[in-house]
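FIELD: query
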Amino acid sequence: MKTRVLWVLGLGLCGLLTSGAVRSLTPLQLERYIQQKLRFNAETLRLNEKDIGPAGAQFLARSPLLRKIRRLMIYKGNLGDEGVAFLARSENLSNLKELYIETDTITDAGAKALADSPYLSQLEVLNLFHNRVGDEGAKALAESRTLGNLTLLNLNYNRVGDAGARALTESPHLKSLTHLELAYNRLGPEGERALKVFRFKNLLALWHREGRLSNLENYYIGDLGVRLLLESPYIGELTELNLAHNDLTDASAEAIAESPHVTGLVRLNLSGNLIGDRGAIVLAGSAGLRNLKYLDLNFNQIGDAGAFALARSETLSGLETLRLGQNRIGDEGARALAESPYLKNLMFPIFGFY
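FIELD: result
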């Protein structure tokens, strides 16, 4: 899938760089051209810079030659919304897996025609690179009951704004969608954030499948990433969680401490972040972390107030390893930790780095 995705996304750039005159074809010429192309590859039909127009699209839609096509690629075909509508209504495209209609002045009306098509239920890739699809077209695609098998949707170089981005990234119908491209659209901060959340959720699913979710050291997921991880269906499966060096602040410590899904954690590594006293205090008071045996807070910004809270934590009394090296803890904080009536099971020095 990764190779195909890179190839698919590269098509748009290749299209922009393609030079040469657009050639107009009569229906008879188009039929002969299609027959010739399909002799070389019976499942892929590529029509680059052929002036098909709505009439040619109508001919295509009616042609039985398309029944075995799995991949239809049209670049600068002058289809417009009318031509796209003819294709969308074609039963001959019911076996199509990938559809590329690039640089063809498609607007929201064309996107809606594709979304409403009863014949595109097998579609896995839809590439509408460099068209004129806006929020209404994006919403129509998001609400489609036919496009549930889409894994990739390319809307780069269109006119989608925040509302369209939210609709696509939060769609309950596009359940298989893992790759959504919205570069060079009209996204503001809200749309960019929606896209970021969408992509990170798909990364979480990938890391879960690959068995990497328990060790995210140096992934730089930030506070938003931690929040999404804690909201994911995977967090309850973890007994170990390494979030070292991820640019985390007290907000992440609070999210972890308040999560009802971390009771299975035995080891938690938050070293090399930006956690201060507030974060240490909420961790110390977290009922959800009562089963922790290992807590690494090396290389953070914790001072005496955080040390006092950890020293007084009954919740963390089961800790066997607590690491607080390279923080801002002074003599009083260190003394409180050493004299804690609760941290009696520690097997290693608190200020060791190993």
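FIELD: remark
DSSP finds 13 helices and twelve strands in the chain.
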